[in-house]
Amino acid sequence: MIPDPDRVARIHATLDEAAADAALTADERRLRDRVREVVRREVAPRARELDEHGRFAHESYQALARAGLAGLLFPAELGGCGSSTVGYAVAMEEIAAACGATSLVYMTQTHAAYPITLAGAPELVRRWVPALCSGAAYGSLAITEPGAGSDVSSLRTTARRDGDAYVLDGSKTFITTGDRADVAVVFASTDRSAGRGAVSAFVVEGTAAGLTRGQPLEKLGMHGSSTAELFLDGVRVPACARLGAEGEGWSIVMRSVVKSRVSAAAQGVGLARGAYTHAVAALGPAVDPATAARLAGLRARLLQGRLLLHATARAIDAAPDDPLTADVAMMKLACTDLGTEVALACTDLLGPLGDLWDVGVERHVRDAKVTSIYDGTNEIQRLLIGRDTRRRVEGAG
What we know:
Blueprint: H1 5-14, H2 18-22, H3 26-43, H4 47-53, H5 58-66, H6 85-98, H7 100-119, H8 122-134, E1 139-142, E2 158-162, E3 165-176, E4 183-189, E5 199-205, E6 211-213, E7 227-238, E8 242-243, H9 249-283, H10 289-318, H11 325-350, H12 361-369, H13 378-395
Parallel strand pairs: 1-4
Antiparallel strand pairs: 2-3, 3-7, 4-5, 5-8, 6-7
């Protein structure tokens, strides 16, 4: 049984909560409604096919870009909308609820453009950020390496200064959109013995000599978003393509990770909402009291997750220079765990139907799992929260 997409969209819209809406500005609600309409028309109808065939979500992403919705966090002069972080989170929710893979392509464009905007020379910013916002170019953020994972300070990829250029050697793995990126922000070390203090970031064009890409990796979920390895063998990058000063890569990562963790958290909330909506659509209006009670509990948890996401995004907007490390970690941990837990609970609620690909809930389960792994694993988030808790307790005497 394949749920009627229009009915799913109607159910999704009717489950907006007054408390969540009250926390949004009028502009943010209007943005949500614009995104929701494009998603209903262009993204949701393609989601099943993308998942089945593993086809890249190009058409879905381009529909969002054509509607002017692909550069929300960037100023108008760079092709963006100048939206709040809250607005971006709300948009991510809507996209992820319909198609996790499209939301991953969408957020990766932001993750590639953001460090260029933060620390790139004006010519780099002008060349790449508008193209990434418009969908004219695809981008990747290349940090993770085999054996390095979340530890940026242990990068093995090297950047050797050679006159007015750097020569990059190494490999990256689990790079979203890596197989087709027109540009990649690559993090490398100029002195591997110096740890994080020697990490720098470089803008590498996809056509650069010595850059090769592996075949897209087979994954549990997010089938409409490609993930690949990158190999750098003597890739020559002009010094003007370095972001910030030499050794500022760690700082750029830390400033960028705030937005990327908002992305993952919003995905978690959106995927939870999508699973819930599909479950409600499959169950129909006549449910027994026990099932209604379980649905009620899930609905309350969804509201909790949305309020946490929106409140943390609001705090980020209010203090753009504060990393809000523990707050962001709690948001990322709670919201991405919510995605997996609610999606799994919905499969249980549906009984035998929950396992059926046609119903759509199991896709949300598969898509949700990775959100607790990337943008800083949830184990890392627990460490950050624990460290902050210990510091506060010690400070209290």
